[in-house]
Amino acid sequence: MRRSSSHPTNTRRIPAPPPHHNRPLIYYHRSSSSNNNNNFPATRNAHRLSPNFIIDLHLDPTIAPSNKRPDPNIVNSVISQCKPTPPPDRTIFPTTTTSRTKLTASLHFQEWSHTLNFMTALWELRLRGAHSFTPKLQSHILVASDTEELKRNLTKKFSDYIEGFIEGVASNVNDDENVVGRWQAKVSEKSDEIAKVTRLLKGRNKPRNFIELNERKKGLMAERDLIVKRLREFRASMNCILKYIEGGREKEGERGLEVFVFDGEIDWERIHRLVLREIRRLVDGLPIYAYRQQILEMIHSKQVMVLIGETGSGKSTQLVQFLTDSGIAVKESIVCTQPRKIAAISLADRVNEECRGCYENSSVMSYPTFSSTQQFGSNVIFMTDHCLLQHYMSDTTLSGISCIIVDEAHERSLNTDLLLALIRGLLCERRDLRLVIMSATADAKQLSDYFYGCEIFHVEGRNFPVEVRYTPSSEGTAFDNVSPYVHDILRTTTEIHKQESEGTILAFLTSQMEVEWACEKFDAPSAVALALHGKLPFEEQSRVFQDFDGKKKSYICH
Ligand SMILES: Nc1ncnc2c1ncn2[C@@H]1O[C@H](COP(=O)(O)OP(=O)(O)OP(=O)(O)O)[C@@H](O)[C@H]1O
């Protein structure tokens, strides 16, 4: 039978804890140079007890800048919100924060029941968005049933939280978080519109109106289908997490390929990050998200596939994450090649940002240039196709790689084509190696024919309204040694910046000289012009990602 809150079997029992305080006692760790090297103020030593349990509160260093000492008031406010749970016997704030994960405070307890309540309350508050600390338990008295009890409590909290999202009811999530509810409302809205258009189609229409209405209906149905698919993906992922934390419980319906493969003890911090990333994916609504399970099923069952999706559909940033989550990179790396260094670096940065806390540190890397010392130790590596070719030269089996994604295949550069030809030869030798050829516009049939008639998967994209504006050309011939059209582009770019309060402009010119001239002449107080062409050194190219005091940007490209 479950024993009461104390631990009668504890032979190291120390003096009884002080009565519970209304407010926690607060101590600061002293530096090691202090005369009193026991870390507690001498006057308080009477209260000092070796704690049976410690809850360390860690803060993600990416949330709190590393040079800033955590504010004790924030911790105290969190502690006060954990009421009616008894507060810790002692709270200690470290004075230095050098670790990668910031230790913000240590909460000391003597009683297991108080520790359990506190841990549960802390996680509940975090799930409600009240704080960003990760509570980590240190137990000086190891009792197996304690661990089980804590796991049961946290499983219940997390299950309620996740089920709140799945159902799309705001019982456990607030209105802002009720993203499923909002998308479901959108599905109903689209269905109503479809019904309205269907009624109009049944009436008398001129042929032109009929065609327009029919097109509108098709568009609405495609939009609704995409939302329904995204919701299905979201539920599949949430069910997968639920199944894991609840120890293999099958959820009714919606069984498909496991989108997450879990291993070992539950890491609650990671689970929370995964849930938050799924919510973000649902909110962002990238088209590829709607096809995640279909794509994964194809990649897991076939060795090669061609993936075609419109620009911005999420191919480069999402596919590597889907594959990592589904377990393809457990032992070996997924390599995604890019034709340009800047793309390899910026994609790695972006993916790292999106999946912060979902994988181990250094799980996503970029190798923009080749080095013979490079290892395939990360889950995902973005590299230039040239870099992968160099690796092939030193190891023609490409050991350490489980999946190669050749991105931007339509560019058909010498490196890309050579790489594809070499991988084609390797596929017969390494039956475990998978290849995905990705592009927005490549000739999919040609690529499929070359790769033994492999499957082609199309990701239907989102359409955005495009407004075409014609600018009357400047009269006369070239002046200032540049063509009149460059003056026109400069004038139009400046005008758009004056009219629009936000947004970035991409302008394409035909030579490096024109780009440099345009950047020099660009003059709009609220914006900066940044050159982007292949001959720029990498540091200069990277300027496009910098922030210029919140000013809008124009990328003048060649
Ligand atoms: N560095 C970034 N900063 C902000 N948003 C980004 C960044 N990179 C990508 N995104 C967002 O992610 C979305 C998907 O980008 P991604 O590169 O995965 O698309 P894609 O289908 O590979 O496009 P393309 O065919 O042009 O390579 C973009 O529409 C954009 O909203």
TrEMBL record:
Chain intervals for the UniProt region annotation (Disordered): 1-44
Keywords, ordered alphabetically: ATP-binding, Helicase, Hydrolase, Nucleotide-binding
Cross-referenced InterPro entries: DEAD/DEAH_box_helicase_dom, DNA/RNA_helicase_DEAH_CS, Helicase_ATP-bd, P-loop_NTPase
GO molecular function: ATP binding; hydrolase activity; RNA binding; RNA helicase activity
Gene3D superfamilies from the UniProt entry: P-loop containing nucleotide triphosphate hydrolases (3.40.50.300)
Pfam families linked to this entry: DEAD (PF00270)
Domain Helicase ATP-binding: 296-460
Matches recorded under PROSITE patterns: DEAH_ATP_HELICASE, HELICASE_ATP_BIND_1
Positions with biased composition (Polar residues): 1-12
Range of residues in the leader sequence: none
This protein's record includes keyword Nucleotide-binding: yes
EC category: hydrolase
Catalytic activity: ATP + H2O = ADP + phosphate + H(+)
EC number assigned by the record: 3.6.4.13
Family matches, as PANTHER family: ATP-DEPENDENT RNA HELICASE, ATP-DEPENDENT RNA HELICASE DEAH11, CHLOROPLASTIC-RELATED
Name of the protein: RNA helicase
Organism per entry: Salix viminalis
